[in-house]
Design goal:
By secondary structure, the protein is α+β, with helices and mostly antiparallel strands. Helix content is 31%, strand content 32%. It contains 4 helices and 12 strands. The strands form 4 sheets. A 4-stranded mixed sheet has the order 3-4-6-5, with helices on one face. Strands 7-8-12-9 form a 4-stranded mixed sheet, covered by helices on one side. The chain has a two-stranded antiparallel ribbon with strand order 1-2. Helix 1 packs parallel to helix 4 and helix 2 packs parallel to helix 3. The radius of gyration is 17 Å and the shape is globular. The two termini are 31 Å apart.
Length: 214
């Protein structure tokens, strides 16, 4: 999968603004080896090979619904459990997001989405604020979806939030099926993130903060 720079032409500006909103991060510890490549101005192309099938499925949701190109490859101590790999993928993806956004000049910054999936209804609101915070309101009724420990959903978002420096609120308005609740969460997150990282044509060259810095 090739990650390319993209030129964005804005209707209120005659010039073309060259964006290189891409990043590649490699993180190696005694427990895992994770490589993430991201293009915020992509088409939803995704390669996910973490050794955790359900996590791969959720990464595809982020890419597809966020319209970002994403390549995630990880090896880890899965013979122990999925915890370290799941968390370190969240950490590395967060670091790649932070790097790709740079000084966050021109982005919308805020995003929110309400995603239904059958009986499940999940609301996500986020802000690329530079202040990491997670409010997590999921009540997942089962301990596992297939072989995936559902406690790891929160751990993934904790890691992602802390290393991308975003404020993230996740609310469960309805849902009784664990798979539906989790998948709707990732879809809502992807759509909210897509909204937040879009370039605002009315202030494409400025940082979206009254302080002038994020």
């Amino acid at each position: 999968m090739q990650i390319r720079d993209r030129q964005i032409s804005h209707p209120h500006h005659s010039e073309q603004i060259l964006t290189a909103r891409t990043a590649s991060v490699k993180r190696t510890t005694g427990e895992t080896d994770v490589q993430v490549t991201i293009n915020l101005d992509g088409t939803g192309a995704c390669i996910a090979k973490t050794g955790i099938p359900f996590l791969d499925h959720m990464l595809h949701q982020i890419s597809s619904h966020g319209l970002i190109d994403l390549q995630v490859e990880a090896t880890g101590d899965l013979e122990i459990d999925d915890h370290h790999t799941n968390e370190d993928v969240g950490i590395t993806l967060g670091q790649a997001l932070l790097k790709a956004l740079g000084d966050r000049k021109g982005i919308v910054r805020f995003g929110n989405f309400l995603a239904p999936l059958d009986e499940a209804l999940i609301q996500v609101a986020l802000d690329f604020s530079g202040r990491p915070h997670l409010s997590y309101g999921l009540e997942i009724p089962t301990q596992r979806v297939g072989t995936y420990d559902t406690q790891l959903v929160r751990e993934f978002f904790v890691a992602l939030v802390n290393h991308s420096q975003m404020t993230l609120h996740i609310r469960q308005l309805d849902g009784i099926n664990s798979h539906h609740i989790i998948e709707a969460t990732f879809k809502a997150f992807a759509r909210a993130m897509r909204m937040a990282v879009e370039i605002d044509p009315r202030r494409a060259s400025t940082i979206p903060s009254s302080k002038g810095v994020l």
